[in-house]
Amino acid sequence: MSFELSEPVLIVGLGGVGSKIATKASKLLNSSCLIVSNDQNDIPTGSHSIHISTKPILNPSIHLIRGFAMQSETHIRNEISEYSTIIIMANLAGKSGAAMAPVISQICKESNKNILSFAIMPFKYEKDRIFNSGISLKRLQTNSDCTVIIDNDAFLDSNPNLSTKVCYEITNSAIIHVINSLKGTSIHEETHMLTSSKEDSDLENSLKDSMKMLYESAPPNSIKRSIMYVMGGANAPIGIINTISNLSRNVLNEEGTQVDIEIVSSDESKVVMLSSIQGETKFHKYDPLGTIPNEDTLDWEEAECSINCDLDLYQLE
Fold first, then answer.
1. FRET partner for 285 with CA separation of 20 to 30 A, picked from 60, 82, 124, 183?
2. β-bridge pairing 9-14 and 32-37
């Protein structure tokens, strides 16, 4: 089934990266925007927001941030109540995104909203973030009707000479392109991988980079459908469009994959791919216990969290 983007739409940005992307995306869709973060610096001046205060803790853990977010459940429910579709922007490499994505998505699911989520995964050298990002992604996927995953690590593997800042800029730009396309393109209710390349006047090379990034994150036989956005394709020779069209179909159709091509007017020149994935991806291994089915997990209903409480306990000797 296709994901239905029904109005009114609310875009929820979690943390610093999520807030920046959500602000841009809301302008493209002419929709409302809500910023949720435990760090006041993530919230733009004058924006509609919910500040999850973790005082007096200066450097709260992910579990503590999640606990404070759960205490704001009523406030969050009130903010989303008048909307039909909720789009969640979460950087699962960051504390705020990994902590609050399970909470926000669960509240939206319980409120019977259409939920489209975007999850940005960490680089592999961020060892301390991989485990928590895997747990948060699993819950986010379970609560969402459709999830789009962006694997920054796969992009960096394909472009090792790029700085992390440039990598973020390119992958975030790909998210904005997909958001903008939602007004005219339907996507399926399933998990998707979003892949891109750096700007390249040679669209064939750009396509190869996007495919390389895709196969870094998911095995070829798991890819069932791809939408290929050819940025700047309106100015490209028709022979070039035909070449990359044939190349993509020759590579992907070996697994019976459907490939759709969208020509997008843009000052940039590159290929962005949105590919639906069935089965496991490399992110299932981020959580060693992730292979255990939900029905065999005793505490799945509530996300793991901790609370800040003062207990006046006497020392026993």
1. 60
2. parallel
